[in-house]
Write a structure and sequence with these properties.
Rossmann fold, 14 strands, 18% strand, globular
Length: 417
């Protein structure tokens, strides 16, 4: 089977960002399939290609993956209008590839929602099977966050969501809430596979030199958030907790916010303005550097804005990296991850918008390092039992193979009749 794989934000382990698509493509290849990955360029990312663009794209082989990188730069610092235009350009150029490239099946993953457009074209214009992966529910999420309020835009997004679901031979949801959200749009449950983000167990089990950035002493409790600094992440909650810790005189607890995003300058300005020297900002790092950082970290921070749509409708990569690294997790919003943290006793689940509870949890962590290490071991056990990337990747490949085989079987029946 030859798979044409659309992921606008594809990165390899050499760049900063989530590597789910890289890992899934590699598993397809290991199971005897071929993959052409179509992507754009993302700030801090690394597609594995470095040559010049010709006619708006560059193409080459990266670890057995045929990568087509479109000359469409994307950054979390871009405004909504610019990002939306980039999404549309990527979708339209992807349609052109879907109509020209040789392949047996199209796979497309959000975000953005426009990722489904080339799959729709492949299904209806070329009769190819299409599998659609949903990482966030749209337009529910932007509506709940208040990012998009225009009813015409929200209506268009709802139509695109419905059309993507109905065009797909199979669907993949990354969390229980996402699977339920797809089902509520009238898609039969048996067509939807739950394949959450996974843990790269081998990566985080390897020896790596531990490191901490300047400003964080070896004796400090180091709490790390590794991810985008955007509206959805609600990192003002971390600064609120830092301010509470400062009031308590706990200068031995440091929060390290590592990554980039639209709100990073505002967060830095606030930390400076309020004298929050217990918050340290750092540029993104690739997976190899992240392994060393996690080896020196005491607590992983999983933070999101207090939006009910997030509670069961997200599957954050950073959570799975934390437990793969054997770190206890501090989570500041309700939902399936908070429930898992409580059930497996692998961290702290604090209420949203409660800096006192947030600071209390960090003080508890600092006061009992032995209990903290036990939480981390239980988190690693959870990673091994439930979220092994190798197991989940095989489940994901099975979903694609079943869609292809079902389509091929119908085609044979049609020809026979």
């Amino acid at each position: 089977m030859k798979v044409l794989y659309f992921h606008q934000h594809f990165v390899t382990p050499h760049g900063a960002g989530a590597i789910r698509s890289y890992a899934m493509a590699r598993r397809l290849i290991e199971r005897g399939h071929q993959v052409t990955m179509v992507c754009g360029s993302i700030g801090g990312g690394n597609t594995g290609l470095s040559g010049p663009y010709e006619n708006g794209l560059r193409r080459g082989w990266v670890d057995g993956i045929d990568v087509i990188e479109l000359d469409l730069a994307y950054s979390n610092h871009d405004g909504l209008a610019k990002r939306s235009l980039t999404f549309l350009k990527f979708a339209l150029r992807s349609v052109w590839l879907a109509l020209r490239e040789p392949y047996d099946l199209v796979f497309a993953t959000t975000t953005p929602l426009t990722a489904g457009i080339p799959g729709i074209a492949a299904r209806w214009l070329r009769g190819k099977p299409f599998v659609f992966e949903v990482r966030d529910l749209w337009p529910e999420l932007p509506r709940a966050m208040g990012v998009i309020r225009n009813p015409v835009v929200l209506g268009a997004m709802s139509v695109l969501e419905w059309t993507s679901y109905r065009s797909a031979q199979g669907l993949v949801g990354l969390s229980p809430g996402i699977v339920e959200g797809i089902s509520h749009r009238g898609v039969r449950r048996e067509r939807i596979a739950l394949v959450p983000n996974g843990c790269d167990l081998d990566l985080f089990a390897q020896d790596a030199a531990p490191w901490r950035p300047d400003g964080i002493a070896p004796s400090d409790l180091m709490v790390v958030f590794a991810g985008t600094h955007g509206v959805a992440n609600g990192l003002d909650a971390a600064l609120d907790a830092a301010a509470e810790l400062k009031r308590r005189g706990r200068n031995d607890i440091k929060l390290l916010l590592i990554g980039n995003g639209k709100l990073k300058p505002a967060l830095q300005a606030r930390a400076t303005r309020e004298g929050l020297d217990n918050v340290v900002f750092h540029d993104p790092v690739n997976k190899a550097r992240l392994v060393g950082l996690m080896a020196a970290t005491d607590v992983g921070l999983q933070a999101l804005a207090n939006v009910p749509a997030f509670y069961f409708g997200t599957s954050p990569n950073k959570f799975f990296d934390y437990i793969a690294a054997g770190l206890p997790v501090l989570n500041n919003y309700p939902g399936w991850l908070a429930e898992m943290i409580r059930d497996y006793r692998c961290g702290f689940a604090v209420p949203p918008d409660d800096p006192v509870a947030f600071a209390d949890a960090l003080e508890q962590a600092a006061s009992d390092r032995a209990a903290l290490q036990a939480m981390g071991r239980r988190g690693r056990a959870l990673a091994e039992q439930e979220f092994d990337r190798a197991v989940l990747a095989n489940r994901w490949v099975d979903t694609l193979e079943q869609a292809w085989q079902a389509h091929d079987s119908r085609g044979r029946k049609g020809r026979a009749s």
